[in-house]
Amino acid sequence: MKLSDICKHINKECKSDIEIKNLATLKEAKKDSLSFFHNSKYINDLKTTKAGAVILKEEDAPLLPKEAVAIISQNPYEDMAKVTSLFKYTPSEKTYNPTLKEGARVANSANFGKNVVIGKNSLIMAGCYIGDNVEIGDNTIIYPNVVIYHNCKIGNNCTIHSGTIIGSDGFGFAQTIKFYQIGNVVVEDNVEIGANCTIDRAALGSTTIKKGAKLDNLIQIGHNCEIGEYSIIVSQVGLSGSTILGKGVIMGGQSATAGHLKIGDRAIIAARGGVTKSLEGDKTYGGFPAVEIRLWRKMQAALMRLVKRK
Amino acid sequence: MKLSDICKHINKECKSDIEIKNLATLKEAKKDSLSFFHNSKYINDLKTTKAGAVILKEEDAPLLPKEAVAIISQNPYEDMAKVTSLFKYTPSEKTYNPTLKEGARVANSANFGKNVVIGKNSLIMAGCYIGDNVEIGDNTIIYPNVVIYHNCKIGNNCTIHSGTIIGSDGFGFAQTIKFYQIGNVVVEDNVEIGANCTIDRAALGSTTIKKGAKLDNLIQIGHNCEIGEYSIIVSQVGLSGSTILGKGVIMGGQSATAGHLKIGDRAIIAARGGVTKSLEGDKTYGGFPAVEIRLWRKMQAALMRLVKRK
Amino acid sequence: MKLSDICKHINKECKSDIEIKNLATLKEAKKDSLSFFHNSKYINDLKTTKAGAVILKEEDAPLLPKEAVAIISQNPYEDMAKVTSLFKYTPSEKTYNPTLKEGARVANSANFGKNVVIGKNSLIMAGCYIGDNVEIGDNTIIYPNVVIYHNCKIGNNCTIHSGTIIGSDGFGFAQTIKFYQIGNVVVEDNVEIGANCTIDRAALGSTTIKKGAKLDNLIQIGHNCEIGEYSIIVSQVGLSGSTILGKGVIMGGQSATAGHLKIGDRAIIAARGGVTKSLEGDKTYGGFPAVEIRLWRKMQAALMRLVKRK
C-alpha cells in the first residue's frame, strides 16, 4: 500500500510516497514498514529505527533517523490504530487440509486454516482449531480443543494443554478505536503450556515464549510480552502487555505485572506479588506493589505488632 | 403453570390460583411472573413490583403491592430455589441448522441448538456451540470454540474470542439446593470480549454487557451483573453476582467486586483493587478493601515508614 | 517392568528384582508399586507404606518398612521424575465409540477415546472430548466443549459446564526434567463444576473432588488436591498442588492456597484470602498471609489510623 493512501486514511499529508508492506514496532521495522512512537520508554528504539515511516508527535520528530519519513500526529497511538484497520486480518469459516510432515497425526475433528504445516511426529488432537499459516514444529503435542490463531508459530517438542488459546487479540483500544492486532505469537522449542491459558498475539511484531519456558494453567500473557528461556510461570499469573521476563524467571501463583516493564534474569516473584516497575534479576520479590521479599515480610510483621501493641 | 401447583411443590397454601408463566426479579416481573424477596437491598423493587405473586417473609408482606399474591416463607431464597426446578432448562445432544441472514457464514464444525438466528454478514467459526433460541446480530465475529448457551442474545458488530463461555449457570445454591439459573445473557452492540472469559446467565432476568464495552481475557462476570456502556474490563477481573457498573467504568487487571453493589459512572478501579461496597463515580480507587487510591498509597507509604523507623 | 530395568534407567543398583506395575504415592502404594520420599510432611506415610520399593535419601532409609526395597538417591524427586517417563501415557488422534448405558445420549460432534463408559441418562454435549478409559456415572450432564483426559472418573448426578478441563497435567518439573503425571482425577457424586475451570490430574494417585462439592468458574485445582464433601469454591480460586480441604470448607472468590497444606472442616476463607499454612476448621480467615479474619480487620484498621494520625 502506498504511504500516501495510508496518510489519506488518517487525514495527513505525506512528503514521500514509498510502498508500505507492513506495520511494525520501531525495533523490528524495515524500510517497507510503517511504525509509530508514543511511549518514551521506547526512545532508543526511535533513534535507531529502520522504519520507512513513523507516526509521531512534532516534538519527537528530530529524534527520527533522517532516512525515515515523519508523519506528524497529535495522537500517534490513535492514528496508528486507525491505520491498523487497513492491515487487519479477515477471519473465515472455511477449513483446509494441512500439510503433514512424516509421522504427523491429526484428529478428524481438528480444523485447519490455509497453509498450515504440522511437523514430524506431531499430534493435533480432537476439536483443535489451527488458523491460517500456522507452523507447528516436530514432536509437539496439542491436546483437545486448543485454538491457535493465524500466523502463529509453535516450536519443536512443545506440549499445549486443552482449552489454551494462542494468538487471540491483544487488548488494544485507542479510546473507542480498535488497534487491530497485526502481530503473532511465537512459541519456541521445548515449551509446555497448561490448560485454559490465553496468550495474546502482538499488536505489531511477536509475543514470544522462549525455549524451555513452562506455563501452568489459566495464565494470561498480554500482547508483545516476552517470556525468557526456562522461565516458570505458575497458575493464574497475569502479565500485562509488553512485559519482558529475563531467563529463568519464576513467577508464583496469581502474581502479575503492570505493562511495559522488565524483570531481570533469575528473579523470583513470590505468589501474589504485583510488580509495578522493572526489577533487577537474581533477587526475590513479593507483595503489592512488589518489593524485595524481606522488606515485604518486615512490613507484614510491623503491621502485626501495631495491632498487638494496641 | 398454576400458582397452586407451584405452591404445592414447596408445601405452601395459596390464596389465589393465577397462571404463572415465568420466574422473574421483582423489577422485571409482570403479572404472570412469580418473584421472591430476600435481600433488603431490593426493598424499593419490592414496593413497586408488578409481579403476580412473591415469595417473602411474613414481616415483609405488608410492603408488597396489594395486587400481588404473598406466599409466606421462612426462607424465601430456599423456597424460590425449589421452584426454579419446575422451570429448569433441559439440555440436549441434538443439533439443528440455524437461520442464516444474508451474508452470514458458519463453519461446518460449528453446532447449533433449535431456533438459532445468525445476523447479516456474521461469522461463526469452527467448533463453536450456539444453544437453543440464541440470536446473533449483524457483522458479528465469533472465533473458534466459543460456547453460547440457550436463550442468550448477542448484538451487532460484536467480537467474541475463542474459548469464551456465555450463559453458563450462575453460582447459586440455597445450602445444597440448586437455584436453577432461568435467566440469560444479553450482549449489546459493539462489544468485544476476549478469550476464555466466563459470563454467567442470570438467575432470573438478564446478565447484561452494554454497548461498546470491552472485555479482555479470563474475566469472570457473575450472574445478574450489568456492565455499563463503554466500560473497560482488563484481564482476570472477577465480578460477583449482581454487580452493577456504570458507564465508562475502568477495572484494572485482577481487580474484583463483592456482589450486589454499584460502581458509579467513569469510576476507575486500579489493578488488583478489591471493591467491597458501592462506590461513587468519577474517582479512582485501589487496594483491598478498595478506598480512594490516594488513601491507599498513603497507607502503603505509612507501612513503609513504619518498617524503616524501626 | 522389572525393578532392575527401572534402576538401570536412573543409574542405580538394585538389591532386589521385583515386578513393578505402577508408580504410587507412599500412602496408596501396594507391593507392586514404586514410590518415593522427598518431603518431610509425608514422613508418617513413609513409615507405614506398603510400597514394594521406594526412592529416598540414604538418611531416610532406616525409616522405611523392611519389606520395601530402598533405592538410595541424592535427589529422589528428580530420579522419580526420570522414572515417570517409563510409565507415561501416549495420547492419540484416534476416536472410538463409547459404551452407552440405558438412556445415555452423546452429541455427534463429541469425541471419545478407547473404553469410555457413559452412565444411564447421562448427556455429553457437542464438542466434548472424553479420553481413554474415562467412566462417567448416571444422570450427569457435560456441557459443550468440556475436555476430560484419560483415566479420569466422574460420578453420578454431576454437572460440568463448558470449557472446563479435567485431568490436564499437573505442573511438575524437577528442574528441567518433566515429572510425567501418571495419576488421574476422581469427581464424586453430586458435584457441580462451572465453566473454564482446570482440574489437574495427580502426579501419582488421584486429585479428588468429593461428593456434593460445588465449584464456580475459572478455578484452578492443582495436582493431588482433595476437595472435601460439600465444599464451596467461588470463582477464580487457585489451589496449589496437594492442598487438602476438609468437609464444608468455603473459599471466597480469588482466594488461594500454597501447596501441601490442610484446611479444617467448615473453615471459611474470605475472598482474596491467601493461605500459606494449614488452618484449623470452624473458623473464618482472611488476608494474605491469611489470619483469622478479625485479626486481619484489625490490621487494616490500624493501618488506616496510622494514615489519619499523621
Please describe what this structure looks like.
The structure is a homotrimer of 310-residue chains. The first copy, chain A, is α/β, with parallel strands linked by helices and 310 residues long. Chain A folds into two domains: 3-87, MurE/MurF, N-terminal domain (Udp-n-acetylmuramoylalanyl-d-glutamate--2,6- Diaminopimelate Ligase, Chain: A, domain 1, 3-Layer(aba) Sandwich); 99-295, 3 Solenoid (UDP N-Acetylglucosamine Acyltransferase, domain 1), CATH 2.160.10. Helix content of chain A is 13%, strand content 27%. The first copy, chain A, has four helices and 35 strands. The first copy, chain A, has helices at 3-9, 43-48, 76-84, 293-309, and strands spanning 22-23, 33-36, 53-56, 69-72, 99-100, 105-106, 111-112, 117-118, 123-124, 129-130, 135-136, 141-142, 147-148, 153-154, 159-160, 165-168, 173-174, 177-178, 184-187, 192-193, 198-200, 206-209, 214-215, 220-221, 226-227, 232-233, 238-239, 244-245, 250-251, 256-257, 262-263, 268-269, 274-275, 284-286, 291-292. In chain A, the strands form six sheets. In chain A, strands 6-9-12-15-20-23-26-29-32-34-35 form an eleven-stranded mixed β-sheet, with helices on one face. A nine-stranded parallel β-sheet of chain A has the order 7-10-13-16-21-24-27-30-33, with no helix packed on it. A seven-stranded parallel β-sheet of chain A has the order 5-8-11-14-19-22-25, with no helix packed on it. In chain A, helix 2 links the parallel strand 2 and strand 3. The model of chain A has no long low-confidence stretch (mean pLDDT 96). The interface between B and C is large, with 42 and 43 residues.
